[in-house]
Amino acid sequence: MRMAPVLLFIATLLGATACLAAEPELVSVKKIWDAGQHNAFTDLARFRDAWYCTFREAQGHVGGDGLLRILRSADGDTWESAALLEEAGIDLRDPKLCITSDGRLMVVAGGSVYRGDTKLLGAQPRVFFSPDGTTWTPPHPVLSDGDWLWRVTWHEGRAYGVSYPAGPNAGERKFPVLYASDDGIDYQPVVEWQLRGEANETTLRFTADGQMVALVRSDGKAAQGWIGSSRAPYRDWTWHELPERCGGPDFIVLDDGQMWAAGRRTTGPASTVVARMTLSTYEPLLTLPSGGDTSYPGLVFHDGLLWVSYYSSHEGKTSIYLAKVKLPEKTAE
Hints:
The chain is mainly β. The protein contains one helix and 25 strands. The strands form six sheets. Strands 6, 7, 8, 9 and 10 form a five-stranded antiparallel β-sheet that branches. A four-stranded antiparallel β-sheet has the order 1-25-24-23, with no helix packed on it. A four-stranded antiparallel β-sheet has the order 2-3-4-5, with no helix packed on it. Strand 19 and strand 20 form a beta hairpin. The relative contact order is 0.14.
């Protein structure tokens, strides 16, 4: 049967409306920690049938000797402190969780040294390893002073991460570098990303066919941020500039190929958002309860929901929150 033009238009309009309505929905949000004076920079992982959330505790956003708190939960509802990682004279920052190829839980973090309260003298990444989420190795410095290895992702037995130049000892380096490691300690450079703008914090993930995807924050006026993709050996990259900046970026790739991201949005009042992402697009769709000093989410997809750890000061004190988000089903292309 041939559809009349008016009916065809209405059907098309309704279909477009249905697509627009397919947006993520906030199911719940809960504050899970506020014991520190300043609680910030989270990440989330599921390890051995339990939840782990890590973040930094310190006196403020910058400066002092930051400690890394590790929380554990059996059900995602009741949380308890499993470990506290520290190093004398070092501000441990931006902890990120991952699971190594041999089944250990790993934390990578920045290690900053200050003169006075906030004058940065040096920065070198640290890594920690644990067989059970409770007992951890001492901090192990990696790369060099002037590097900031922001997150590590394991794929087919290797650890990949991007380090950007940080602090007064970065020298003449201007661009981030993709590194690879067989053990999470010794890293070899793969390629330098000569991106326009001040590219820095980067999350790497892999698609089902082995393609590496990068979500990159960029500061300054030259660029807002980047999405990049590459196939092994990951030396040749295709780049797309973001329409807006994403601070503290994280994203995941679902089994059906969808990509969902989260981070700080700075168009308007600062907030933490969940965004639909492709290899070339980034579209914020859901604003989590947040404001002020906020962002640095961790993402895990579990039991049909996107679990999001993040921090925010919208209730006064910087605290750690856990949100559950229902994602829309993948639409037919």
